[in-house]
Amino acid sequence: MSKNLEISTLLDYYGMLLTDKQRETVEYYYDDDLSLGEIAENTGISRQGVRDSIKRSETILLEAEEKLGLIKKSEMLKKSLEEIRKDIDIIDEKNMKIYRSDIVNESIKKILKELNGIDEMI
């Protein structure tokens, strides 16, 4: 994962741990691809102040992931959900070919609805 994508992802998960000014600065730099000079002009702080703010913010975001691991847990959960979907497809296929059970069809629909709800949360 590129550093820009990593920091943008960290910002999505942990951005509320930053001050409004820090979050704004990091968004300008990583999401909007502005230079330090452009950010300094937009925010009214020095170029060095922008750089320092970005570095402090990166540290906060990286430490938050190190301690909480929400991104790592989310990725593991996504992989698990994908495996569950594959298993559901196998069950559905077998049910359609062999058993043709309405109860199994309804259960599959319920499970898929729950999985979709979980997908929306992560």
Describe this structure in words.
There is one protein chain. By secondary structure, this protein is mostly helical. It has two domains: 3-68, Winged helix-like DNA-binding domain superfamily/Winged helix DNA-binding domain (Arc Repressor Mutant, subunit A, Orthogonal Bundle); 72-121. Helices cover 85% and strands 0% of the residues. The protein has helices spanning 3-14, 20-31, 36-43, 47-68, 70-99, 102-121. Helix 1 packs antiparallel against helix 2 and helix 1 (3-14) packs across helix 4 (47-68). The model has no long low-confidence stretch (mean pLDDT 96).
Question: What keyword list fits this structure?
Answer:
single chain, 122 residues, Arc Repressor Mutant, subunit A, 85% helix, mainly alpha, 2 domains
Chain-wise SSE layout:
Layout: H1 3-14, H2 20-31, H3 36-43, H4 47-68, H5 70-99, H6 102-121
The gist of it:
The chain is mainly α and 122 residues long. Helix content is 85%, strand content 0%.
